[in-house]
Q: What sequence folds into this?
């Protein structure tokens, strides 16, 4: 069967980016079994021939209306598919979907009828929000960084911006490359609409959100940017834990240092 990627270099590149990041997630130990999800809005690289393609699946409900996604296209990791397999064979472990005209359903159009991630309602809610805000963000990633999930088991880190300020203070790059910090969402049932709605609420102030005792979700202009923010936060968490394991509480950067950094790089917050 001819792949949708053939003779479409722009679309192929977007899928290649997802495959590359999927490999990093597996290598870092953040994607056990089928853990984690990736979705990318690929509408901008969809041509008229693709738009005319018939569905290769039944019509599936999203679970809520997504008015800004009418006719949009996404590449999605498949449900119960492994990141390590997505890295090697992206079109066998992911699929291209189209949002229907009623904005409440989707169909799979290529390459195989691989149903998307079970977290699709949360992911599409994020994409719907990003289009509404016009921020140009096209990628959403959910993964399970061991260090950040571990920190979410400590109630004191779940208070607003406590974890943000701690992680920012560990190394200047974290403040610079994750300038909006990390939002916190109390535990909610995975794949639920409640989790999706809570995530959207946090995205008004943050690009990265920590789902308590579950994982981290990030959004960005592309999948590399979204991954990088989680990566720098994880590095800070490792620095903090390493210091604690050495037997001391790290001082972190001072308030003066943080203010100087904010002004030098013209950072928000």
A:
């Amino acid at each position: 069967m001819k792949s949708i990627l053939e003779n479409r270099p722009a679309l192929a590149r977007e899928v290649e980016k997802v495959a590359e990041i999927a490999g990093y997630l597996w290598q870092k130990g953040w994607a056990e079994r089928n853990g984690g999800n990736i979705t990318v809005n690929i509408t901008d690289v969809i041509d008229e021939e693709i738009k005319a393609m018939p569905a290769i699946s039944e019509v599936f409900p999203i679970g809520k209306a997504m008015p800004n996604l009418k006719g949009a296209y996404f590449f999605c990791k498949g449900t119960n598919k492994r990141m390590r397999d997505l890295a090697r064979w992206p079109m066998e472990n992911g699929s291209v979907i189209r949002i229907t005209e009623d904005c409440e359903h989707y169909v799979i159009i290529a390459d195989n009828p691989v149903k998307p991630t079970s977290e699709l309602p949360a992911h599409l809610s994020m994409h719907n929000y990003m289009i509404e805000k016009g921020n140009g963000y096209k990628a959403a990633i959910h993964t399970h960084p061991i260090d950040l999930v571990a920190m979410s088991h400590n109630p004191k880190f779940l208070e607003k911006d406590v974890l943000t300020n701690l992680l920012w203070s560990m190394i200047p790059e974290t403040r610079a490359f994750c300038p909006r910090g990390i939002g916190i969402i109390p535990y909610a049932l995975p794949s639920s609409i409640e989790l999706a709605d809570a995530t959207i609420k946090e995205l008004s102030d943050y690009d990265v959100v920590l789902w308590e005792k579950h994982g981290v979700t990030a959004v960005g202009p592309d999948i590399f940017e979204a991954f990088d923010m989680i990566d720098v936060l994880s590095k800070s968490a490792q620095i903090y834990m390493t210091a604690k394991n050495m037997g001391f509480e790290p001082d972190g950067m001072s308030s003066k240092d943080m203010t100087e950094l904010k002004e030098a790089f013209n950072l928000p917050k």
Q: What stands out?
A: The chain has two domains: 1-134, 145-269. The two ends are 51 Å apart (CA to CA). Residues 223-245 form the longest helix (23 residues).
